Structure formats: C-alpha cells, structure tokens
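Input/output pair, single chain:
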Amino acid sequence: MGKMEGTATAEIAAPIERCFEIAADVDHIAEWQNGVQHVNVLERDAEGRPALVEIVNDAKVSTIKTKVRFDYDPPNGLSWHQEKGDLKSLVGSWSFSENGSGTTRATYSLDGDPGRMLGMLIRGPVEGKLRDLLVNGRPGELKARAEAG
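Output:
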C-alpha cells in the first residue's frame, strides 16, 4: 500500500459555526468518530483549544497511536499534522463553507503514509475498509452529530 489519501464532503443542515465547533472539540471526537479509541490532550493553545493531542485509532489490522498538532481557522476549518507516531506521516483537515439558509458544506481531507511495515498489513479489501472508516465516513459522522442538535 502506498499513501492513504482521500477527500470526502457532506452538505450539513447546520450553521458553519456549529460544524466548526464540533470538529474543533477534539477532546470529544471519540464520541462521534468511528475508530477513535482514545484522545489525550497534551498541550492547549492560548484559547484553551487542543494543540498537541495523542490519538489512538483502531485501524482494523492494528492500533495506531499518533501525536498530532492542530491549527484552527474559525469558523472556516482546522488542520493537523503528525509530529510523532506509528505512521510515517499524516496530515489532515476540515474545511467549511456556508451554503446559505443555515447549511454548511463540510470537506474532510486526509493524507497519510503508513510506512513500510504497517503498509504491508493494509492491502486489498482492508485498504478500502480503512479508507471508508478514516476518510469517507467522517463527513457523515459530523453531519449526524451537527443535525442532531
């Protein structure tokens, strides 16, 4: 397997501020993002938001631990990159744009390189299932949470 990359988008019947608020509440992503097992905030920024976070994910073939640093651009989105972890590299982002009438277009992007050893485990059907979990499913999960009120 090469890189794990992809982008997925959803139209959400909620204001951009609500979508940003949920995505930026990194402390609680394990409550709504499938596969996230544990979140440990190691540092916070000047506004009290998670800045450096250790996240443990169930990647089906292995548990993956990463330390990622977050950058925020409220309410337009947030991004992150791995500083240390089980993967060779990982960068991702949420971007939000208003569609009018209180709706939001949410786009999730992920670009990761599992490295040689983990990459050997993630092949064929497992690769597709992992992409569905870690990329394709994220906007729908945010949509369900944001529209639930």
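The chain has one domain: 4-147. The first helix runs from residue 16 to 24.
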